[in-house]
């Protein structure tokens, strides 16, 4: 059954939609947490610490964090694998282009594939930059996320990579949220306006919210 | 009116094709698009050339035989079938590009004619009811709620022309398959096969090499019968439900 599900184009698409929604849910929580940066190093670093003890005393130190990491990793991998396999199939199903072509789809719809690749690369960079510190610009300090964030956004490339990725994320979420609703069978005529409005609101709030952090560092509000 | 036609010519499935250009004069605004092609073919025959092969049958917009991608639009600029498209939708002096449906599941047979038998096999996989049918039964014998009847009728309008596949950037047959699934799945007559129908038809659709859905909406825009994009949403829901109910 599970195999049949995965082998169907509909099954793969449902996996893509469900994992996409998990990631959107995570982005909302992540944004709320990140907003604490505007209330100073004390509050932001304490939040970083809480992520490690979340779920205590039921959960051992960092278990909650690792559970979240594993779920997210599984979601990204399943999402990317289904996207890759379905895209390969889609391209094969329409080998010959029309001589007379017109661009019709919205920008967000047309850029799902390349936007997804940008997001995938961004996720890798982001983890290496602010979680492991491998590619971090300043001296990466474990347990001092506030300073690490300020250091990242004190470099021009840190700002460029981050802002470009967040614009791509907004586009991806705009088409993605609405698509996921259709894929999971939740859309219809009467709900469509509400679904599109939620998709647009999510895209705008997530993009503007995340971009406010590098802008905060650049303007000296966060330093 | 005087037109420049650029038409896809291809001798057989294996031959390479190319666009050929023809000048056509004396076209009336009242002609249908297919009548315009008939005039072109008469001229070609007189000149000793091979006429352009294209599909057509009823010429009244109900059979689904006609096709053609006209200036990049499946069935041309109006929301109707090519046979019901009239030359008044074009201007004197226009250049019109005419191409066949493009999808690997719809190989070109000749010129503008493609093989749409993949659709027949999708129907054979579940687009029917198993109840024995004789003469038309008494209409009130099986009550159907108005909303369900409307929903079924909206989807039953699909004539299986394949414009949805032609318009889809992924060559997907989701709108066709969903129209057929929804039409029968909502009705009491179709309910014994409700789960197997959607599972089997979707499996056959995949086996034919159609692409997947990326919700671009091109199919519903091209559909001459106005099958809505939410038809696909409804099929997704039926498919999810069926995977939970049927253990295979
Ligand atoms: C923050 C990360 C991400 C989020 C929140 C996200 C969200 C979504 C959602 C909700 C969908 C809609 C699924 C559906 O159509 O039912 C989607 C589709 C898609 N995603 Fe992502 N995604 C993310 C990252 C990625 C990555 C890393 C890739 C590439 C490897 C990717 C590639 C795609 C593609 C190709 C589609 C299908 C586009 C289409 O249907 O036209 N996404 N995404
Ligand atoms: S010829 Fe029958 S629908 Fe056009």
TrEMBL record, chain A:
Keyword flag Transmembrane helix: yes
GO cellular component, one term: membrane
Source organism, top-level taxon: Bacteria
Name the UniProt record assigns to this protein: Succinate dehydrogenase (Or fumarate reductase)cytochrome b subunit, b558 family
InterPro entries associated with the record: Cytochrome_b-558 (IPR011138), SQR/QFR_C/D (IPR034804)
Keyword check for Transmembrane: yes
Keywords carried by this UniProt record: Membrane, Transmembrane, Transmembrane helix
Membrane-spanning ranges: 14-33, 63-86, 107-128, 156-173, 194-217
From TrEMBL, chain B:
Alphabetic keyword roster: Iron, Iron-sulfur, Metal-binding, Oxidoreductase
Domain of life: Bacteria
Gene Ontology BP term (one): aerobic respiration
GO molecular function, one term: metal ion binding
Cofactors demanded by this protein: [3Fe-4S] cluster; [2Fe-2S] cluster
InterPro entries, sorted: 2Fe-2S_ferredoxin-like_sf, 2Fe2S_fd_BS, 4Fe4S_Fe-S-bd, 4Fe4S_Fe_S_CS, Beta-grasp_dom_sf, Helical_ferredxn, SDH/FRD_Iron-Sulfur, Succ_DH/fum_Rdtase_N
Gene3D superfamilies: 3.10.20.30, Alpha-helical ferredoxin
4Fe-4S ferredoxin-type domain sequence ranges: 149-178
Keyword Iron: yes
EC number: 1.3.5.1, 1.3.5.4
PANTHER family referenced in this protein's UniProt entry, alphabetically: SUCCINATE DEHYDROGENASE, SUCCINATE DEHYDROGENASE IRON-SULFUR PROTEIN
Protein family per UniProt: Belongs to the succinate dehydrogenase/fumarate reductase iron-sulfur protein family.
UniProt name for this protein: Succinate dehydrogenase / fumarate reductase iron-sulfur subunit
Species of the source: Streptomyces iranensis
């Amino acid at each position: 059954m599970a195999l049949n599900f995965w082998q169907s184009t509909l099954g793969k698409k449902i996996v893509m939609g469900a994992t996409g929604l998990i990631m959107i849910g995570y982005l909302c929580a992540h944004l709320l947490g990140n907003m604490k940066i505007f209330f100073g190093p004390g509050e932001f670093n304490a939040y970083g610490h809480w992520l490690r003890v979340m779920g205590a005393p039921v959960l051992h130190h960092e278990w909650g964090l690792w559970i979240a990491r594993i779920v997210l990793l599984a979601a990204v991998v399943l999402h990317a694998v289904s996207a890759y396999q379905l895209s390969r199939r889609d391209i094969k199903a329409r080998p010959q282009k029309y001589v007379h072509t017109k661009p019709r789809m919205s920008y967000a719809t047309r850029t799902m594939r390349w936007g997804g690749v940008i997001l995938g690369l961004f996720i890798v960079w982001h983890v290496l930059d602010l979680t492991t510190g491998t590619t971090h610009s300043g001296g990466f300090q474990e347990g001092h996320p506030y300073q690490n964030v300020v250091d990242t956004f004190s470099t021009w490339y840190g700002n460029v990579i981050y802002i470009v990725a967040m614009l791509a994320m907004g586009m991806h979420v705009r088409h993605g949220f609405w698509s996921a609703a259709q894929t999971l069978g939740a859309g219809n005529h009467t709900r469509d306006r509400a679904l599109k409005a939620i998709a647009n609101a999510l895209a705008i709030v997530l993009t503007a919210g995340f971009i406010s952090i590098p802008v905060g560092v650049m303007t000296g509000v966060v330093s | 009116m005087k037109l420049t036609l650029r038409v896809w010519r291809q001798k057989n499935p294996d031959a390479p094709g190319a666009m050929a250009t023809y000048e056509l004069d004396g076209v009336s605004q009242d002609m249908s698009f297919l009548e315009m092609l008939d005039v072109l073919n008469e001229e070609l025959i007189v000149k000793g050339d091979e006429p352009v092969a294209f599909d057509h049958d009823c010429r009244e917009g109900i059979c689904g035989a006609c096709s053609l991608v006209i200036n990049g639009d499946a069935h041309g600029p109006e929301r109707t079938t090519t046979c019901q498209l009239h030359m008044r939708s074009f201007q004197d002096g226009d250049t019109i590009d005419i191409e066949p449906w493009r999808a690997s599941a719809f190989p070109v047979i000749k010129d503008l004619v493609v093989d749409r038998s993949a659709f027949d096999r999708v129907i054979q996989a579940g687009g029917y009811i198993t109840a024995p049918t004789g003469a038309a039964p008494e209409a009130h014998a099986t009550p159907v709620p108005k909303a369900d009847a409307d929903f079924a009728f909206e989807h039953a309008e699909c004539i299986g022309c394949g414009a949805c596949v032609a318009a889809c950037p992924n060559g997907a047959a989701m709108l066709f398959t969903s129209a057929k699934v929804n039409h029968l799945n909502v009705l009491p007559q179709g309910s014994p096969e409700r789960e197997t129908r959607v599972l089997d038809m979707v499996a056959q659709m995949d086996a034919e090499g159609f692409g997947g859905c990326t919700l671009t909406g091109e199919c519903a825009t091209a559909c001459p019968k106005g099958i809505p994009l939410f038809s696909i949403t409804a099929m997704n829901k039926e498919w999810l439900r069926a995977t939970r109910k049927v253990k295979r």
